């Protein structure tokens, strides 16, 4: 029972993680590729051009795929397969064709529960318009070459509509049809020339539209490049200013340090002088005090010596008196 509870808890955690991943993919799908605000008419024009570009590579489901991927990011192939009612492998085959020409990009994530990889697709608008312009230029070159040949050369055709050929090839066949043997007749190319001119005008219009839309997607990187250059210039100027300020600060610091050293030296000299002066004063005072002490000592010594002399004299007098008294008694 305990093991079953643990497995249930694990399954709940896995389900929560999967739900989070799905929500993240949905949020990514809602995010638009271009931040520019566009009207519905502009969106429809873009879609029509995208239909036309994708139709170069896909016969079926070109419109549906463009509608599903247009202006969105990271759409899973399973969602595309559900909406188109086809298998995931069919969706992958179609999208791989587009990916080979760079019209579509993908990100791959592994499903932890099932073990296989899920592909999330996005439509690369810039690459689509570049591909369209390249293909249209090829067709335009071919049509212009045909128009020049039909304007300069004369063509001959069989009345039974077997063959149409130029004047040079007709001369080789003596102006007879190689299939049925009837006489070839000159053909007026005015209708074909008009058709070709009309087609050329169409292709030129498509190229102009694609270029105008491509400029919208190429404006940002150009602006970014200019902004980067300007930022680099500003940074270079700032660096130069900072270097100058550093040099000035270093010079000021050096001056301050020198001034401080000079002040400290002067203060030390003053201190030494003051100390010497004080020591001299002390010594002079001490000398004066010593002299006074010596004088007082000498005076005291003199006084003491005088007192001793007086005492000695007094004693001598007393002795003399006693001697005289005894002498007097002897007499």
Task: Explain what the structure shows.
- This protein is mainly alpha-helical and 331 residues long.
- Among the domains are: 10-123, Orthogonal Bundle (Arc Repressor Mutant, subunit A), CATH 1.10.10; 133-245.
- Helices cover 75% and strands 8% of the residues.
- It has 8 helices and 6 strands; from the N terminus they run H-H-H-E-H-H-E-E-H-E-E-H-E-H.
- The chain has helices at residues 2-30, 40-54, 62-69, 77-84, 88-100, 125-152, 167-172, 190-330, and strands at residues 75-76, 104-110, 117-123, 155-157, 164-166, 185-187.
- The strands form 2 sheets. Strands 1-3-2 form a 3-stranded antiparallel beta sheet, with helices on both faces.
- Strand 2 and strand 3 (117-123) form a beta hairpin.
- The longest helix has 141 residues, at 190-330.
- The termini are far apart.
- The model is unreliable at 1-10 and 24-36 (pLDDT under 50).
- What is the count of helical runs? 8
Lateral arrangement of strands in the main beta sheet: 1-3-2
Q: How far from one another are the termini? A: 158 Å
* Model regions low in confidence, pLDDT < 50 over at least 5 residues: 1-10, 24-36
Envelope shape? rod-shaped
Radius of gyration: 59 Å
Let me know the number of strands: 6
- So, CATH architecture of the domain at 10-123? Orthogonal Bundle
Instruction: Estimate what percentage of residues fall within beta strands.
Output: 5-15%
Structural class: mainly alpha
Helix fraction, binned, reads over 70%
Q: What does the average pLDDT come to?
A: 78
Largest sheet: 3 strands, antiparallel
CATH topology of the domain at 10-123: Arc Repressor Mutant, subunit A
| CATH first level of the domain at 10-123 | Mainly Alpha
């Amino acid at each position: 029972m305990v093991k079953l509870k643990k497995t249930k808890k694990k399954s709940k955690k896995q389900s929560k993680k999967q739900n989070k991943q799905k929500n993240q993919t949905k949020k990514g799908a809602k995010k638009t590729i271009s931040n520019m605000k566009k009207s519905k008419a502009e969106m429809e024009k873009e879609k029509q051009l995208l239909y036309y570009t994708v139709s170069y590579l896909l016969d079926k489901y070109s419109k549906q795929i463009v509608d599903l991927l247009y202006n969105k990011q990271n759409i899973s192939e399973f969602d595309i397969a559900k909406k188109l009612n086809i298998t995931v492998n069919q969706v992958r085959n179609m999208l791989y064709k587009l990916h080979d020409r760079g019209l579509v990009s993908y990100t791959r994530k592994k499903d932890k529960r099932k073990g296989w990889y899920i592909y999330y697709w996005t439509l690369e608008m810039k690459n689509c318009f570049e591909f369209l312009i390249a293909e249209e230029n090829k067709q335009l070159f071919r049509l212009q070459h045909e128009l020049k040949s039909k304007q300069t050369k004369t063509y001959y055709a069989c009345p039974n509509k077997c063959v149409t050929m130029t004047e040079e090839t007709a001369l080789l066949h003596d102006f007879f049809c190689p299939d049925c043997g009837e006489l070839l007749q000159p053909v007026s190319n005015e209708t074909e020339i008009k058709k070709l001119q009309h087609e050329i005008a169409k292709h030129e219009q498509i190229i102009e539209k694609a270029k105008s839309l491509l400029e919208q997607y190429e404006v940002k990187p150009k602006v970014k490049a200019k902004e980067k250059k300007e930022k680099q210039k500003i940074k270079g100027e700032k660096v130069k200013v900072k270097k100058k300020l550093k040099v000035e600060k270093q010079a000021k610091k050096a001056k301050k340090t020198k001034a401080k050293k000079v002040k400290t030296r002067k203060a030390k000299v003053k201190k030494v002088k003051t100390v010497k002066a004080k020591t001299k004063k002390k010594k002079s005072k001490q000398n004066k005090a010593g002299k006074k002490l010596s004088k007082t000592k000498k005076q005291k010594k003199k006084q003491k010596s005088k007192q001793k002399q007086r005492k000695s004299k007094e004693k001598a007098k007393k002795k003399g008196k006693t001697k005289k008294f005894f002498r007097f008694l002897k007499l």
